[in-house]
Structure formats: C-alpha cells, structure tokens
Recover the amino acids of this structure.
C-alpha cells in the first residue's frame, strides 16, 4: 500500500462514508437507552413480524432456486428450441419492480392479497438473480466431468444431480442470497399485497409517530437478520465449493454437449412460456388494459413527464456517484491485494445487506440532526443510492480492472507516465465495458428503488416509483398504469444489455462479495 497512498486514502474515505449510515442508525436506536431497545425487540408484535418476514423470504428463495436453476439449464445445456430467445426473455423480469408486478396482479385478482400474492409476485421478479449466475456457472464448468459420469452408465437425470448441480451450487447459493436480501428489503410488493413484513412495520412506525426511535430499533433488527443470512450463505457456499468443485487440471475449454429433451421438450416449452406469461406478459397486458379501459385514466401528462425526468435524473446521478466511489475500491481490490484492501472492500459492502428502508431511515436521522440543510434534498437521495448500490458497482469495476493486463500499465510507467495518467489512459479504457455494465446495473436498480426514495425524495418532487405507489395505495389503478409502463420502459434497456453482457462474458456483475 506504500506505493498507492492517494488510492488508499480514497478507498478509506469511501469505506468510512459507507459505514456512517449504519453507525448512525444504531445510535438512533439506542438514543433513549437499551431498555427501549429490549422492549421493542421482544414484544409479541415484533416477533410475529419477524416470523412472517423469514417465512416469506425462505419460501421465495426456495422457489427462485428451483425456477432459476431449471431455466438456466434449459437455455445453456438442453436442446430447447429458441433457447437464445428464451435466455433473453428470462432476464426481462429484472426490469419489472415488485410493486408494478404487485399492482398488476392485485388489480386483476384482489383475492391474492396476503402471503400468496406476495410470494407469487416476489418469486416472479426475483428468479433472474439465480438464473444469471447459474447460467454463467454452467457455461464455464468442465463438461468432461459430465462425460465421465455418462460413460460410467449414469443417465442424464442422475448426471444432472450428481455432477452438473454440484458444479453450479455455489453460483446458485450466491443467487439465492440476492433473492433473500431482496425479499427482506422489499417494500412496494408486500405493501401492495397487504402482507406485513419488517419493511412495512418500519415505515408505519416512522410515519405514524413523532418518536422515530422504535423505527430505528426495527431497522437494526432487520439489518442484523440480513447479516445473519449473508454469513450463513457464505459458509454454505464455501462448503459447496469445496465439496463439488474440485478437479484435476484446468478442465476442457469448450462448449458442453447439449442434452436432448426428447419427450420432455413440449413440457419444457409450455413451462417456459407459462413462466414468461406470468412474469412479463401479465404485467404488460394489465398495464395496457388499464391505460385503455381504466376508469381513472385521465393522467396529468405534466406530472408524468416531471416524474420521468426526475427518475432519469436521480438514477443517472446515483449511477455516476456510485461508479466514482467504486473505482478506488475496485482498483485497490485487484491491484493492491492485502489486509487493508480487503478491509476497505468489506466496509464498502456495508450497504449490501441493508434494505432501502433502513438506509433511508439512517439518513433521515443523519440529515435531521447533523445535516439539516441536506435533508430531503437531491444530494441526500443520491448518496443513499451510493450506499445501497455500491457493491453492484464494485463487482463490475473489479471485473473490468481484472480484465486489464498489468503489463500494459507497466509499459506505460516505463515510458515515464505517472500512476494517475496510466490509470486514466490505460487501465480505465480497458476496464470500460465492466464499468459501464456496473453503471447500467446501478441505474436500473436506482430507477426501481422505492422505500429510501419515499423517505428522502426532495420536497415537492416525485419519481415514477413514488407516484405509482401513491396512486395504487388509493386504488387508482388506471391512473397508476402509465407510471408503471414508463418505469418498465426505462428499466428494460439496461436489463437486456446486462443480460447480454452476463451471458457472453461468463461473469456475474455485482454478485461478487
């Protein structure tokens, strides 16, 4: 680290900024002493909400693992017709926020409200988090192991469970963690489906009382739950990698043979079509129907345009800030590996397990008490996106930096160019595709973010997400439909681009930890 003092200082500064909201949330929770914390944590209602939250997260994660692994295998290893087209279409639910999907289902079938509706909606929008890493793992795994299994008399089904699934297990567990954390932090989908989880409890406590300490206590419990899940997943993934990934040699650098579906082909086609119809077709159909025939379709065009512009503005600023913060951390992690760089990276990932509602609440405390001039102003909201989505950008930057040959940097330095000039003229241009993918991922995620935006949005302004949530809360489905459609259009382009990048490059941007 002696060779990069400026970079080290920048990395430490980023890590400190990421830890501040978490620390301030804890201080806010203990503002009135530990007695209140204990009473809030162990009251019957808190334990009941905890059980409901864990139940939903577990059910959705298991369902997404089953769907994501099956869909990834179909488009990578089977002879499914049009599997390239299906591979693209399967990623599209990334562009559909949970609250958009929720409102389209609940507007058609009000009886879905509750656990069943929340489970359905969150499963349909979350399975790509498993699909993408498993696709990458299946593309890069050694096909020779499967060939050996078949040569020993194992059929395709036994080979799948004994060999293929073991090779993909670490990637599937990583995707499952993303799903579990997504469900823990989801606010829009569960609120529309009227299923109370921790996020709803925190928001209700924050809005329903002048005393925000109980909300901070609930936020700390939610953060602790997310951390426990993250640690458990990392340990399970480590055991899975040790158990199922050992090999002799480097493996075969070639495409694996496709497995013929034979009689199962019609069922695979029907199942794939049904999944896409439920995850993508249903939201698009319902949004279109409500815009055409809804009773409340008189939309304020000026309001819609204003919300769209605000969404584009805050998402772009959030993506720019997040990538800027990720650059020194990513360079440290790849080029200057050591304890300090690992510590900086770990601290920078503080937002990884933080639901948006807790980051928003932490910055509310911070803004009111220390930075009142920034509370409910654009910089505070953009910074919240930086805290929440920095891990996504760091994963992309690391991938891009790792792809830039060190020798080219050494040549530049030997020609008398300084370290900063070398990074600007050599390293960053080579890492640009990964960095751009990270920016697109942050932009996409920020455009869909709801709870932190509700708490921190500038006074008098709204995004597409907050407008849609407000209108669906009063059952104005026809008026809400254009906002949902605009949000899907904005999110669809980076979703398709990301899906293409992840399939062709064989790496998963933003899922590394």
């Amino acid at each position: 680290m002696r060779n990069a003092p400026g970079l080290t200082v920048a990395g430490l500064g980023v890590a400190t900024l990421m830890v501040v909201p978490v620390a301030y949330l804890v201080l806010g929770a203990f503002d009135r002493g530990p007695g209140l914390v204990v009473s809030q944590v162990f009251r019957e209602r808190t334990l009941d909400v905890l059980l409901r939250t864990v139940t939903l997260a577990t059910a959705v994660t298991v369902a997404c693992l089953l769907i994501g692994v099956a869909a990834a295998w179909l488009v990578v290893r089977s002879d499914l017709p049009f599997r390239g087209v299906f591979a693209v279409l399967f990623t599209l639910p990334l562009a559909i926020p949970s609250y958009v999907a929720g409102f389209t289902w609940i507007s058609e079938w009000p009886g879905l409200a509750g656990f069943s509706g929340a489970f359905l909606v969150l499963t349909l929008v979350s399975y790509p988090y498993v699909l993408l890493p498993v696709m990458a793992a299946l593309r890069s795994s050694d096909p020779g192991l499967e060939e050996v299994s078949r040569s020993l008399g194992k059929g395709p089904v036994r080979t799948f469970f004994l060999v293929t699934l073991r090779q993909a297990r670490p990637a599937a567990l990583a995707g499952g963690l993303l799903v579990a954390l997504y469900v823990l932090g989801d606010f829009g989908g569960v609120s529309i489906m009227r299923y109370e989880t921790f996020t709803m409890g925190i928001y209700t406590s924050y809005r329903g009382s002048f005393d925000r300490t109980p909300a901070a206590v609930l936020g700390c419990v939610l953060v602790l739950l997310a951390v426990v899940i993250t640690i458990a997943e990392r340990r399970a993934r480590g055991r899975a990698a040790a158990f199922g990934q050992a090999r002799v040699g480097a493996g075969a650098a070639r495409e694996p043979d496709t497995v013929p579906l034979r009689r199962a082909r019609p069922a695979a086609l029907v199942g794939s079509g049904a999944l896409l119809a439920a995850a993508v077709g249903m939201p698009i159909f319902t949004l279109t129907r409500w815009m055409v025939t809804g009773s409340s379709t008189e939309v304020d065009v000026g309001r819609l345009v204003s919300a769209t512009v605000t969404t584009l503005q805050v998402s772009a600023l959030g993506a720019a800030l997040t990538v800027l913060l990720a650059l020194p951390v990513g360079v440290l992690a790849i080029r200057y590996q050591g304890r300090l760089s690992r510590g900086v990276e770990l601290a920078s990932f503080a937002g990884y397990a933080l639901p948006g509602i807790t980051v928003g609440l932490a910055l509310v405390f911070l803004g009111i008490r220390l930075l009142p001039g920034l509370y409910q102003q654009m910089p505070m909201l953009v910074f919240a996106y930086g805290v929440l989505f920095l891990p996504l950008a760091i994963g992309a930057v690391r991938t891009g930096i790792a792809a830039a040959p060190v020798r080219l940097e050494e040549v530049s330095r030997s020609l008398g160019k300084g370290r900063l000039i070398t990074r600007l003229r050599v390293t960053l241009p080579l890492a640009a595709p990964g960095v751009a993918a990270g920016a697109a991922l942050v932009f996409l995620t920020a455009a869909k973010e709801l709870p932190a935006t509700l708490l921190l949005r500038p006074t008098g302004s709204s995004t597409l997400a907050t407008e849609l949530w407000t209108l669906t809360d009063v059952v104005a489905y026809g008026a809400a439909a254009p906002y949902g459609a605009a949000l899907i259009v904005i999110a669809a382009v980076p979703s398709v681009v990301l899906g293409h990048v992840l399939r062709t490059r064989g790496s998963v941007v933003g899922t590394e930890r």
